[in-house]
Amino acid sequence: MTSSVHTYVSRLRRVLEPDRRPRSASALLEFDGLGYRLNIDTDQVDVHRVEAHVETGKRHIPQAPRTALTEFERALALWRGRPLVGIPGPLAEIERSRLEELHFTILEMRFDLMLSLGMHNEAVHELSSLTQRHPLRERLRGLLIHAYSLCGRRAEALAEFQNLRRELVQQLGIEPNEEVQHQHMRILRGEPVLARGGHHDPSAGITSPLLLAAPPAQLPRAHPDLVGRDHEVQLLRTMASEDLVSAKYAPLLYIDGAAGTGKSALAVRLAHEMAAHFPDGQLYVDLRGDTTSKGPLGTEQALQHMLFSLGQMASNALPAESLIGLYRSLTAGKKMLVVLDNAFSHEQVRPLLPGAPGCAVIVTGRDTMTGLVTMEGARRLTLGPLRSEDAVLLVKRSVGRALRQQHNALGESALPSRWVLSELCRIHGYTPLALHDLSKHLIRFATTEGRCAADAESARAAAEAVTATGTRNAPWPYGRLGRETARVLRALGMFSVPSLPRDAVAAMLGPEIPLVDRHLDLLVVLGLVGEEGGRLCVVPRLRAYTREEGLREDPPGTRFLWARRMAHHCTAAVLRSLHASGRCPDGRGPAVLHARTGAAVLTAAERAALCAVVAEAARVARDR
C-alpha cells in the first residue's frame, strides 16, 4: 500500500512540476511528516476562481450590471465539460452535483442580467438551445418565456409554456411553478410585465421591471374609533413637521408600547394624515414582530415585498446587501412614506430605512429599540393604557355604532351601568385591543340570543382557564376583580345549589356590601355568573374554585352570618309562596301545591335552595 502511494505521488509530481529535477524537494506536493499536502494558491484552482467571479459579479449587480455580466461570463468560461470526469467515489459524486448546480445558477443569473440589459434576442437564441438539453429546468424555461415576451413573440411564449406544462405533467406529474404560471396568465391577458426596448435602470440588477399604473398606496384602513389619543397624535404631528421643514433628515418616528395599546392604529391614522405630503407613494409592511406562529419577517422577505411594490421583481439570487442597495436607489430623490408595523428589533428595521432625505418612516414595536433612537435619530413616543373615561367612551361608541347598524333600537342603552362599564374596562386593562374584544362581547350580550351565546362562550373560557391553571391559580378575570365583587362571587359559590334568587343574594350581602346589584351585573356580563328569570348561579366549572377561595379568604364567622341571612330569606320566601297559594301548612299534613297556581315551581326551587343553605349553615357552624 505504501509503495502504491509513493508511486502515485511521484507521478503527480512529474505532472505538476515537469521541470523539477529527480529526487529534489517538491514545492507543490510536499510531505510534512503526517501526510502529503498540495501547496497551491486559490487562484490556481478553477473552482475557487469560479466562486470568486460569482461573488464579484453579485456585488456589482446593483450599480454596475454590465461588469457583473462580464464576471459571470468569465466564470462560465472556466467550465470545460462535466466536472471531475473519471474520478470515482461518493465524495466526487457529491462535489460533481454541487458544481453542476452552481453552473446552472450562474447561467440563470447571466440570463437575468441579459434580459434586464435589453439583450433579449441573444438570450432567446442561447436559451432555446439550452432548454432543449435540459427540458425540466423550470427556471430556464421561465426565462425563455420572459425572453419571448420581451421580443413581442407572444405566440411562441404561450407555446413554450404549453410544452413545459405537458412535459412536467407527463414525466413528473406536477404543474409548472407559481412564477411561471403567473407569467403565462399575464401574457394571456395581454398585460406586458417586463420593460421593453433595451432601456435599463443601472440600479436594477437581476430584476424584472414591472409596469406600475400608479404609485403604491398600501396604507390599511384607519380605525374609526381612535379615542383618547389626541395628545399623542398632536405630538407626532409636531415631530414629523419639524423634520419635514428642516429637509435635512428623513423623518423617523417610533411608536412603542405594550401589546394591545393601539400602536398600529395610531401609526396608520398618522400615516393617512401625512400621505398628501408624499406623492410618490406609501409603503406598508407588517414585520410580524408580535407573532410567534410564523416568526418575524426576514430582511430579504421584507425587501422583496418593498421592491415589488416599487416596480422591481428581484431575483432570489441577489444577496441582502444588493437588495438593500437597490431599495435605497429606488427611493432616492422621491417623497415616500414607509410604515414598518410590528417591528421586532433595530437590526430588522435598519436595512429597511431609505438612505436619502425626502422619505418619512413610521415604525411601531413593543421593544424600546434604543439603537433606533441613538443610531438612527428616531423620535420615540411610548403608548400606555387609555384613561378610564376614554376607555368607557371607546366601548360606548363601538357598541352603540354596531347596534345601530343592526337596527337595534336600544343602542347604547343596552350597555350596563356606568359603574359596571368602568369596572369592565379596568378589568380589561384599559388597552384598546382588549376593549374592542369587550365591545364584541357586549354587542352579543345586548340580545337574548346573543346573551345566551355570550354566557356560554364566557363560561367555556372560564372553564378552560380553570382546566389550564388548576384550582390553585386564579382564572381570568377573577384575579382582576375588585375586592367587593370577588367577595360577592365567593358568597354565591359557597352554596351547593343550582341557583339563588337575586333578591336573596342582596339580602345576604347588603349589610356589608352596598349596591350589591351592580356587582352582580358585572359578574353576569363577565360570564362568571349566569342569570335566568331573576335567579343567579356561578358557572359550573368555577364553583369548585370559588368555594375553595371562600374557605381561604372569608372567615367562618362571616360565612355563617351569610348562611343564616340566606336561610332566613329563603324561609320567608317559601312562606310567602304558601300564603299566596292559600295552602299554608297547619301542622296536620304536608303542604301540597297545585301546579296551576304557578307557586309550585317556585316553592320547589326555594325548598331546594333552603335545604342547601341550611346544610351549609350547619357545616359552617361546626367549623367555627
| Secondary structure: number of strands | 12
Low-confidence stretches: 194-206, 449-472, 584-601
Measured by DSSP, the beta-strand proportion falls in 5-15%
Total helical elements: 24
Biggest β-sheet description: 5 strands, parallel
State mean pLDDT (0 to 100 scale).
Answer: 80
GO biological process, one term: phosphorelay signal transduction system
DNA-binding region: 1-40
Family: Belongs to the AfsR/DnrI/RedD regulatory family.
Domain OmpR/PhoB-type: 1-40
Structure characteristics:
OmpR/PhoB-type_DNA-bd, 624 residues, three-stranded antiparallel beta sheet, Transcriptional activator domain-containing protein, 24 helices, DNA-binding, Serine Threonine Protein Phosphatase 5, Tetratricopeptide repeat, single chain, Rossmann fold, elongated, five-stranded parallel beta sheet, transcription regulation, AfsR-DnrI-RedD_regulator, alpha/beta, 56% helix
